[in-house]
Amino acid sequence: MTTADDAPNGKGARVAVFVGAAIALLSLCCCVGLIVSAATWGDDLYHRVTRERGDTVRMGTAGRDGEFEFTVVRLDCGVAQIGDSFVSQTAVGQFCLAEMTVQNVGTKPATFTDTLQRAYGPDGVRFGADSAAGILANSDQQVFLNEINPGNQVTAVVVYDIPPDSRILKLELHESASTPGLTVNV
């Protein structure tokens, strides 16, 4: 005689089949999605993922990234304060001011922003730009977040607040977040 405890559980088997089918369907959808993505963006996506870093130049030499041609003309470190007698900012460590020309050599307007410009010190330590200090350093013109039309050139000072015992060995300059970047050895 068979009791209720000895009978196979049909409900559990149905749930297992349903879960298995859902996993198989999800896997199939992912594979189809990858195939469609590869067919649509394959070559461009491959090049974006595998492309090497951009050009490398010395300070004083022009180099290009995206729509922009950058020339770093001066790097001054050891600056304790930026601003004037009315508005100023004191460095936590020391300010390094990277003066550069930025020319749009492309065919469409492009926006320059200091937050994309990186500095590197010894052992690959990365420093970000200090935008507030950058506004004070560029008080005579509106450089950041303004479109630069093709053929136009601006002079900008990008400010980094780095430790007092550190130094900047190179800059990595970008026209946009999706460009490979221009390395400038200082």
List keywords for this structure.
2 domains, 26% helix, four-stranded antiparallel sheet, 2 helices, alpha+beta, single chain
Give a nutshell description of this structure.
With 186 residues, the protein is α+β, with helices and mostly antiparallel strands. Helix content is 26%, strand content 35%. The chain has helices spanning 10-50, 131-137, and strands spanning 56-58, 63-65, 68-83, 88-104, 110-111, 118-120, 126-127, 147-148, 153-162, 170-173, 182-185.
Topology, element by element:
Layout: H1 10-50, E1 56-58, E2 63-65, E3 68-83, E4 88-104, E5 110-111, E6 118-120, E7 126-127, H2 131-137, E8 147-148, E9 153-162, E10 170-173, E11 182-185
Parallel strand pairs: 1-11
Antiparallel strand pairs: 2-3, 3-4, 4-9, 5-8, 6-7, 6-10, 10-11
Transmembrane segments: 15-41
Keywords: Membrane, Signal, Transmembrane, Transmembrane helix
Domain DUF4352: 60-177
Which band does the percent of strand residues land in? Answer: 35-45%
Number of domains: 2
Distance N terminus to C terminus?
90 Å
* Rg: 27 Å
Total DSSP E strands: 11
Give the structural class: alpha+beta
Mean of residue pLDDT?
84
The main sheet orders its strands as: 1-11-10-6-7
Helix and strand sequence: HEEEEEEEHEEEE
Organism: Phytohabitans rumicis
Domain DUF4352: 60-177
Protein name: DUF4352 domain-containing protein
InterPro entries: DUF4352, Immunoprotect_excell_Ig-like
